[in-house]
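Worked example 2:
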Amino acid sequence: MPASFKLVINNRALENIPEAVRLGLELSGAAFQSEVKRYPPQASGVTYKRTGTLGNTAAYKVEGGGSHYTMDVGGVDYMPYVLNGTSKWVGWPGKLAKAKSEIIRGFTIGLKRVLGK
């Protein structure tokens, strides 16, 4: 993945619930991927045809176990600029905040699902 964000969880307290942590990370990665694939409506009068490259390259990978997990999320090299709103072509105000909240929501759902809460 040319551009990536990294989430690292390193906590000995998590050793007893590895299934919950892994599921939480998998769901949060899927939530991130889903959110990045949602494009805002194209502005009226714009003739540019969207290629879908940003959304189609959004990916995630979860690694680790025990007390150390890493989740990489990323995609095309310009993804951070679009999500941060610093692209010279297009920026999605609030998109990065929404993607981050989806990661947290997915992780919470995964933990609750395994822990039965």
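Strands lie at 3-10, 59-65, 68-75. The two ends are 34 Å apart (CA to CA).
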